[in-house]
Write a structure and sequence with these properties.
heterodimer; A: alpha/beta; 11-stranded mixed beta sheet; 3-stranded mixed beta sheet; 16 strands; B: Peroxisomal Thiolase, Chain A, domain 1; two-stranded antiparallel sheet; about 30% helix
Chain lengths: ~425, ~400
């Protein structure tokens, strides 16, 4: 009997609110949480907007020591991890810790802290030989992002396989795919997974500025990210975290758990094309979709909703629109598509997990969140992108995709599970 | 169950560039820990490292790649070329969607990153390289390998400090089981720039002894931490059927077992290394008595050495198996080190010899380890166990065996 991986708990830190409820409220109302950057003085930069989370670590229950020690992205992971644990109803301390794993996605790790420490140690870039006497004791934790997996593993008491998966902007999908593989192959019964990112610092903003990938609609930040709209002019950065408790199906059934859905298929592909560019034909993303559907034993016509990458760049919109048509054929035109980055920005390695969680909530509520800011659809993008207003629809099988620097293309098929409790 | 064999090995190590130079140097116990030349170490208390000498990227890579790559990516791309050439893989031998690229990283391209951070803060945002967005991040090597060789199969990057070098190979084997024919896998790390060095010093794990012969002494009563180095290994791992498609392909050995575990924060819980090794043996369907050598993690930190010695003794008994740590010649290479240890274990099997551990003069007697000191031990090696630990609690173990 083959093992299946199902989702039994979720936790979220996102722009627009902390916690799953606030997140769903934002998505289902189609509101946006992108704004002018407040985390630092962004005036020297080309793009000065982001989806910022109003995150107060003290109110979220972190100790002063944790707040000093942990990068903001790690703080997100701990807080969202606790929500996911409690939501799952699993008594983590009653499980065999050796059967609990962690797989955490992040694209740029603790960049914000690394940059802050660099500024101090180099006296704002004056010295190549960074002054070691200014180094904080936990600098090495910022140096390697696996420290964040350590923190989450400590939070849940994991002693099974633990790792960070870092594949740029598909990290949040790939980490969950990796977690599902650990469960299916039998290496763990419960894997706490997801993605976290707090990249809002000058170096990250500049990275996207210099390649002109980010939006310059600085005077209208709440509507700046406009996927599939012909007035789009680039992505808007974001931050956030979604943590997911993934559990082996029989393990979840045995304790009568509420099951959000099953990770029924997952595939990733390299495009072998360009570190930042996308080929307009979308062949590799389409390959990933086809393999994920096959693994899920689903036909293209079973797909009731597509959660798009929808980053807000023209090349992305054309790329994924082509991929959806290539894989789903005529059915692509009948399938609602929507993109959450229009509302919460692009939180790099976290966004894939945030999109999984938002999609699972769409399962629960029979409601598909919209693509915000979509007023004038680009005629080259001719699918149904669910503009502005959420749509009621019962969905049993959905597809979520991601695309990232390095050429990574990923696709995941989520399915409702029969007799899922609650 | 799908089998996974190693048919190509690319190595960049402080004591040898390329698998042949590396193995010759390693069997002879050639030390490569030296005073740092890559940056001025005058202001740092740690002044020695394992640097890969004589690596001229321009000799191996097209000029257009140089402005967009960090040193660690250049090492990775050259290592990958070596592995593919050794395996005799020609373009179009294998469908491009049947090749996976799975690498491990500990740091990103931090030398590149430091340069761009300095430009940003000292000169202004308009001076930052257009390549910064991807040159320094952890996923860069997988992306660059895929582009260079036109591979369009699965891609992944795992990060679990030194253990990640083993995890990447374990994940590559998983991809073979899911249906791809061949995987390019392993890791190379290099973070020999002042910014990264400050972080290494802050880790509390570097030795404060700057005598290259006395700095990194795992299992020795004078153990005082480790020395950091750069480099690693990239391997071609494929199914035997795929290798058979290229008649005459040399098979170095087979990856037969893998597991990873994590250490609890609670002191009452036993560290997970022994469990990782046991699970890897079980995965291989092998008994401890079938293992001819253990490539130790060899942290060089007394508490960690003791924990590892207890794990090895717990499985094999006192002096129950030869144990070695060729990383005493190179320093710890982080994700690159985990992969290089697997490559070394494979080469041990292929060449019937165990490379030595150097500089260790006074092994702690209570550890009761049969350390292979100073001289290589020659003789048939059928199977090896490789152990790796990553700072933060990561443990990984891999079993490799002769292919038959």
């Amino acid at each position: 009997m083959s093992r299946r991986a199902v989702i039994t708990g979720v936790g979220v830190v996102a722009p627009g609110g902390i916690g799953t409820k606030a997140y769903w409220k934002l998505l289902s109302e189609g509101r946006t949480a992108t704004r002018n950057i407040t985390h630092f003085d962004a005036s020297p930069y080309r793009s000065r907007m982001a989806g910022e989370a109003d995150f107060d670590p003290v109110r979220e229950g972190l100790t002063p020591q944790e707040i000093r020690r942990l990068d903001r992205a790690a703080q997100f992971a701990v807080v969202a991890g606790r929500e996911a644990m409690s939501d799952s109803g699993i008594e983590f301390d009653q499980l065999d810790p050796g059967r609990i794993g962690v797989s955490l996605g992040t694209a740029v790790g603790c960049t914000t802290s690394l940059e802050r420490e660099f500024i101090v140690g180099s006296d704002r870039g004056k010295y190549w030989e960074v002054d070691a006497s200014y180094a904080v004791p936990h600098l090495y934790d910022y140096f390697t992002p696996s420290s964040m997996a350590t923190e989450l593993a400590w939070t849940v008491g994991a002693e099974g396989p633990v790792s960070v998966v870092s594949t740029g902007c598909t990290s949040g999908l790939d980490s969950v795919g990796y977690a599902a593989e650990l469960i299916m192959e039998g290496s763990a019964d419960v894997v706490v997974t997801g993605g976290t990112e707090a990249p809002l610092s000058p170096i990250t903003v500049v990275c996207f500025d210099v390649i002109r990938a980010s939006s310059t609609r600085n005077d209208d930040p709440t509507t700046a990210c406009r996927p599939f709209d012909k007035t789009r002019d680039g992505l808007v950065l974001g931050e956030g975290c979604a943590i997911i408790v993934l559990e082996e199906l029989e393990h979840a059934r045995a304790r009568g758990a509420h099951i959000y859905g099953e990770v029924a298929g997952f595939a990733s592909r390299c495009n072998a094309y360009h570190m930042t560019g996308l080929h307009p034909e979308g062949i590799e993303m389409s390959d990933a979709i086809n393999i994920a559907l096959k693994q899920a034993r689903s036909d293209a016509t079973d797909v009731g909703y597509i959660n798009a990458h929808g980053s807000g760049t023209k090349q992305n919109d054309l790329h994924e629109t082509a991929a959806f048509k290539r894989s789903l054929g005529a059915h692509a035109y009948k399938t609602p598509v929507s993109g959450f980055k229009s509302m919460i920005g692009h939180s790099l390695g976290a966004i894939g997990s945030l999109e999984i969680v938002g999609s699972l909530l769409a399962f629960e509520q029979d409601l598909i969140p919209p693509t915000a800011n979509l007023h004038e659809q680009d005629p080259e993008c001719d699918l149904d992108y669910t503009p502005l207003v959420a749509r009621e629809k019962k969905v049993d099988t959905l597809l979520t995709v991601g695309s990232g620097f390095g050429g990574f293309q990923s696709a995941m098929v989520l399915k409702k599970v029969e007799g899922a409790g609650r | 169950m799908t089998r996974a064999v190693v048919t190509g090995i690319g190595i960049a190590s402080p004591n040898g560039l390329g698998p042949t130079a590396y193995w010759r140097a390693t069997l002879h116990g050639e030390a490569a820990i030296r005073p740092i030349t890559r940056f001025d170490s005058a202001n740092y208390w740690a002044k020695i490292a394992g640097e890969v000498p004589g690596f001229e990227a321009g000799r191996h890579l097209q000029g257009r790649l140089l402005p967009q790559t960090d040193h660690m990516t250049r090492l990775t791309l050259v290592g990958t070329d070596w592995a593919l050439r050794g395996a005799g893989v020609q373009p179009n031998d294998i469908p491009d969607t049947d090749i996976a690229v799975i690498t491990a990283a500990t740091a990103g391209g931090y030398e590149f990153g430091q340069r761009e951070l300095q430009k940003l803060w000292h000169q202004g945002p308009e001076y930052v390289s257009a390549y910064q967005s991807f040159a320094w991040f952890y996923a860069v090597n997988t992306g660059q390998i895929s582009i260079r060789h036109g591979t369009r199969g699965p891609g992944a990057v795992v990060v679990s400090e030194q253990a990640g070098g083993i995890d990447s190979i374990g994940h590559a084997r998983r991809q073979l089981r899911k249906g791809v024919q061949l995987a390019l896998t392993g890791g190379m790390d290099s973070s020999l720039c002042p910014w990264a060095w400050v972080a290494h010093q802050a880790s509390g794990c570097l030795s404060r002894n700057n005598n290259p012969k006395r700095a990194y002494l795992p299992f020795d009563r004078d153990a005082s931490g480790y020395v950091a180095g750069e480099g690693g290994a990239i391997m071609v791992v494929e199914t035997p059927e795929s290798a058979a498609g290229r008649p005459g392909t040399r098979i170095y050995g087979e990856i037969v077992g893998y597991a990873s575990t994590f250490d609890s924060k609670m002191p009452s819980r036993e560290p997970g290394l022994k469990r990782a090794a046991e699970l890897a043996l079980r995965d291989a369907g092998m008994d401890a008595s079938e293992i001819d050598v253990v490539f130790a993690d060899a942290a060089g930190i007394p508490e960690l050495d003791k924990a590892e010695a207890e794990a090895i003794k717990g499985i094999f008994g006192p002096y129950g198996v030869p144990v070695t740590a060729p990383k005493t010649m190179t320093g710890r290479l982080f994700a690159g080190g985990g992969s290089l240890d697997v490559a070394s274990a494979i080469l041990s099997i292929y060449w019937s010899a165990i490379p030595p551990t150097i500089n260790v003069e006074n092994p702690v007697p209570e550890y009761e380890l049969d350390l292979v000191l100073n001289e290589a031990r020659h003789g048939k090696i059928k199977a090896a166990l490789v152990l790796g630990r990553g700072k933060g609690g990561f443990n990984s173990a891999m079993v490799v065996r002769e292919y038959r």
